[in-house]
Amino acid sequence: MRFRELKKQKAKEAKTKSKPSVKYAHYPDRIKAFITDMFMIYAPILYLITYVVLNGKDEFQSSQWAPLLGVMLYGIIYAILISKFGQTPGKKAYLLKVVDDKTYENIGFFRAFCRFVAFLFSATILLGLLVPFYREDKKALHDILCNTVEIYTEK
């Protein structure tokens, strides 16, 4: 086969391979999923640290490592859930899924944890959380940095 014919054949194959149709998650649903995760995952972690590991709220408030430990445990649990299922309990409740922005496949643990750390950064500067209002694909700063996107799933 000549080079020109091979090039035409590849162009045809590229046209026949179509991207799966996806619906990007709306920002209010993402916020509701986040709040649900705070109550279902983060609040029990803080409760256990405060009353099982430490001796109550006074010791928790005076500790410098306890809040950091809570955030790190939440980040690890979040990354495990996202890498294994693509969803946390809050995202599952609102039919959302975190996937790779090109292949729409689940992401790995390290990338999910980096996404969590990037979320902490974007929430700190607030600008990163306003980005989805100006993008068609509704990506926040942490999604852009980690090449992920939140989409709706079918039940």
What this model shows, in words?
With 155 residues, the chain is mainly α. The protein has one domain. It is 65% helix and 6% strand. A two-stranded antiparallel sheet has the order 1-2. Helix 2 crosses helix 4 (65-85) and helix 4 packs across helix 6. The chain is elongated.
Please describe the structure with a list of short key phrases separated by commas or semicolons.
65% helix; 155 residues; mainly alpha
Structural class: mainly alpha
Strand percentage lies at 5-15%
Series of secondary-structure elements, N-terminal to C-terminal? HHHHHEHHHE
Strand tally is 2
Topology readout:
Blueprint: H1 3-16, H2 27-53, H3 57-62, H4 65-85, H5 89-93, E1 96-100, H6 109-125, H7 127-130, H8 141-146, E2 148-152
Antiparallel strand pairs: 1-2
Helix pairs in contact: 2-4, 4-6
